[in-house]
From TrEMBL:
This is Bifunctional chorismate mutase/prephenate dehydratase. The record marks T261 as: Essential for prephenate dehydratase activity. It holds the Pfam family CM_2. One of its GO terms (cellular component) is cytoplasm. GO terms for molecular function: chorismate mutase activity; prephenate dehydratase activity. Residues 281-358 form the ACT domain. One of its GO terms (biological process) is L-phenylalanine biosynthetic process. It is found in: Cytoplasm. Catalyzes the Claisen rearrangement of chorismate to prephenate and the decarboxylation/dehydration of prephenate to phenylpyruvate. Its EC number is 4.2.1.51, 5.4.99.5.
Length: 362
């Protein structure tokens, strides 16, 4: 068989596979529509999005992946299929810190897929308020960065908000120097969010020591400004590059290649069933007395529950008293976790489970 005959045979096989894929995806979409009909008939029409179910599906895809595609790649494909099917049931409107083109925008798309309805907000406070008021089903907010630390404003908003944590997103942050100009040499000023400037400080010192560094409210705003000015560049990511018609004159200029930001998905959904691999976030406070924090955390150790994060913030009620944000491994319904939380509740002056939710899969 000649080379051309072999290629024609392979291409015919690919065409047949594509037709079968389309048939199966369409069948899956029809099942999603049937699910919506069943839920509406049962009066549970507001429960379309199931974070634990989606996490289980994506984990199963990665575990059962036969190759040659990477597990992450295959899971992203399924993420988009699920997003499109969910949109047939009930499109989700998700609030995030805008404008479009920010890393939070990218986190929304990573977690919910391309078929979500975007609702960019001017501030983190507006994200919380929009979800509280029911204008959006969910919100996505940054909580911590691997190099710059916790986002204090997000923690402070949780103290006063009735919302819950429904999921998390881990986004690897790759900063690019974006410009409409031809190369790095023409750049006279660099726009970026102050955190992006900090995360690229060494590269900027070495390569653009004389360029003005101008802090703006977001990297998306920086990209917008750079697209309108000659001699300007912005530090931003792939989403902003495509959205504002810029080109990356230098990619991956972050000082730490493993730079990652963790985002939380917030919503009004108080209870999410266990997915099998979960976290629980808790807000607690205790009196300011010797050994108080030790006694507060002792139930975790006694029940073999691992704490992955602790942050403190001023209570804003009494000087020098603090509230603590804890992330612990496991779901609040797991027996060991449930016992540990009961012990925490006894020791704490303030105790609130912010949410039990699936750990990030992608």
């Amino acid at each position: 068989m000649s080379e051309q005959e072999q290629l024609r045979s392979i291409r015919e096989r690919i065409d047949a596979i594509d037709r079968e894929l389309m048939r199966l995806i369409s069948e899956r979409a029809s099942c999603a529509q049937t699910v919506a009909q069943v839920k509406r008939a049962a009066g549970s029409g507001d429960d379309y999005y199931r974070p634990e179910r989606e996490a289980q599906v994506l984990r199963q895809v990665k575990e059962a992946n036969p190759g040659p595609l990477e597990g992450e790649t295959l899971a992203r494909l399924f993420r988009e299929i699920m997003s499109a099917c969910l949109a047939l049931e009930a499109p989700l409107r998700v609030a995030f810190l805008g404008p479009e083109g920010t890393y939070t925008h990218a986190a929304v798309l990573k977690h919910f897929g391309q078929d979500v309805r975007l609702a960019p907000m001017a501030s983190l406070g507006e994200v919380f308020r929009e979800v509280e008021a029911g204008g959006c089903s969910y919100g996505v907010v940054p909580i911590e960065n691997s190099t710059e630390g916790v986002v204090n404003h997000t923690l402070d908003l949780f103290v006063q908000s009735p919302l819950f944590v429904c999921g998390e997103v881990l986004l690897r942050i790759h900063h690019h120097l974006l410009s409409s100009g031809p190369d790095v040499a023409h750049v006279q000023r660099v726009y970026a969010h102050q955190q992006a400037l900090a995360q690229c400080r060494r590269w900027l010192d070495a390569n653009l020591p004389h360029a003005d560094r101008i802090s703006l409210s977001s990297n998306a705003e920086a990209a917008q400004r750079a697209s309108q000015e000659t001699g300007s560049a912005a530090i931003a990511g792939d989403t902003a590059e495509a959205l504002y018609g810029l080109r990356a004159v230098k990619r991956n200029i972050e000082d730490h290649p493993d730079n990652t930001t963790r985002f939380l998905v917030i919503g009004r959904q108080a209870t999410i069933p266990p997915s099998g691999v979960d976290k629980t976030s808790v807000l607690v406070s205790t009196s300011n007395r010797p050994g108080a924090l030790h006694r507060l955390l002792t139930p975790l150790a006694h029940n073999g529950v691992s704490m992955s994060r602790i942050e403190s913030r001023p209570s804003r009620c009494v000087n020098w008293e603090y509230v603590y944000f804890l992330d612990i491994e496991g779901h609040s319904e797991d027996p060991d976790v449930r016992q540990a939380l009961a012990g925490l509740r006894q020791e704490a002056q303030l105790f609130r489970i912010l949410g039990a939710y699936p750990r990030a899969v992608l």
